[in-house]
Design a protein that fits this description.
The chain is 40% helix and 18% strand. The longest helix is centred in the middle third of the chain and has 28 residues. It has a domain of 126 residues: SH3 type barrels. The chain has 8 helices and 10 strands. By secondary structure, the protein is α+β, with helices and mostly antiparallel strands. The protein has a 5-stranded antiparallel β-sheet with strand order 4-3-2-1-5, covered by helices on one side. The chain has a 5-stranded mixed β-sheet with strand order 6-10-9-8-7.
């Protein structure tokens, strides 16, 4: 497995709707990083953790500070096609509170993956702290989409599939059109001022929607971590956002090949999130691009 795919598992593990209400095993690294997923193997030398449908990561016990185990685990949303996201913070028409539970889930999804903050916050019932988490999650989602779109535009779909490396972990981003079509079809259980929608992101998951004064909103408990964990989640998201934005600028530059982006971005993720340096010459100097 090339460096990028070890690192990309971390990108998606930190991404939206994955680390929210569903508990998971947690590996705390001596480097300061924290990885959430489901531990599937452990012996006297290593621990293997599965990050949903995205693959596995292996850590030596010497790298681990402590392990917290839970009986439950979550999975990660699927990928998305180019052209479905805009820059985070893009101005939009005034968003209104959705009129139905289904509209609330659809508008929430659109706001998150289009980078439309007004649309997002009009569709979610959240505290100020939870809104901070939503905002950073939206930035992560749109950063990943823009990175993928730029990569495909510069190098082609074939290069993107190679970057993904089907034998390893994948950088999955929601296909917005397919996701909205799915949300329009699945049944909603509406009972008084509460509604639930199951299977929105993966089989068995549940999104809760609440009636408010002027419509319906997605309950923050459906996707946000507990209040005391929000800041640590934000602190883990932001380095990923910054790295994706940074390396996006190098895509398509003269002399930089897709495999160079793959290698250098992977090396950067491992350095920041695992505290390790990958030895060897650099393919290019990101600070000069």
């Amino acid at each position: 497995m090339r460096p990028i795919h070890l690192a990309i598992s971390l990108v998606v593990a930190l991404s939206i709707l994955a680390a929210g209400r569903i508990a998971a095993d947690t590996i705390h690294l001596k480097s300061g990083g924290k990885i959430e997923g489901k531990i599937i193997e452990q012996d006297d030398q290593k621990v293997v953790i599965s990050i949903g449908q995205l693959g596995t990561m292996t850590f030596r016990l010497s790298e681990i500070k402590k392990i917290e185990k839970d009986d439950r685990t979550g999975e990660i949303p699927p990928r998305k096609k180019p052209g479905d996201a805009r820059e985070s913070g893009t101005d939009s028409k005034a968003a209104t509170t959705p009129a139905t539970p289904r509209d609330a889930v659809i508008q929430f999804t659109q706001g998150m993956f289009q980078g439309d903050e007004k649309k997002l916050f009009a569709a979610v019932e959240a505290t100020p702290e939870q809104k901070k988490y939503c905002r950073v999650s939206m930035e992560l989602a749109t950063a990943a989409v823009r990175f993928r779109d730029a990569f495909i535009e510069a190098y082609g779909s074939g290069a993107w599939e190679e970057f993904q490396d089907p034998s390893g972990a994948r950088l999955n981003v929601v296909d917005l059109e397919e996701k909205i079509a799915h949300l329009r079809k699945i049944p909603i259980d509406e009972r008084g001022d509460k509604a639930t929608l199951e299977g929105a992101w993966k089989p068995g998951d549940k999104i809760e929607i609440t009636r408010v004064k002027c419509g319906w909103r997605v309950a923050s408990s459906s996707f946000c971590p507990a209040e005391e964990k929000i800041q640590s989640a934000i602190d883990m998201h932001m380095p990923v956002v910054k790295m994706l934005r940074k390396y996006k600028k190098a895509i398509g530059r003269p002399g930089i090949k897709p495999e160079d982006i793959d290698f250098e971005l992977g090396r950067e993720f491992i350095r920041v999130l695992k505290g390790k340096e990958i030895l060897g010459p650099r393919r290019f100097d990101i600070d000069k691009h």
